Amino acid sequence: MDLNQWVDELFEVFDEDKDGVINRTEFVELIDVLLQDKGIRMCETIFNRFDKNHSNSISKDELRDMVIELAL
């Protein structure tokens, strides 16, 4: 599976309300899964860092940037 497919699947799973963005609640769940034991306290900082347009949500492109930087 390539990166784009992985991001598409992550986005599909964590965009629970299917509104096309990942809101803060969904983001906390995503970070919990990706970071596991590293802790949720990083969520606010990470969310703000990758919510580049300050929309209070994470777009698929913003998620892709986050996955590239944090998970790879």
From TrEMBL:
Transmembrane segments: none annotated. It comes from Colwellia marinimaniae. Gene3D superfamilies: EF-hand. Residues 2-37, 38-72 form the EF-hand domain. This is EF-hand domain-containing protein. InterPro entries: EF-hand-dom_pair, EF_Hand_1_Ca_BS, EF_hand_dom. It comes from the Bacteria. It holds the Pfam family EF-hand_5.
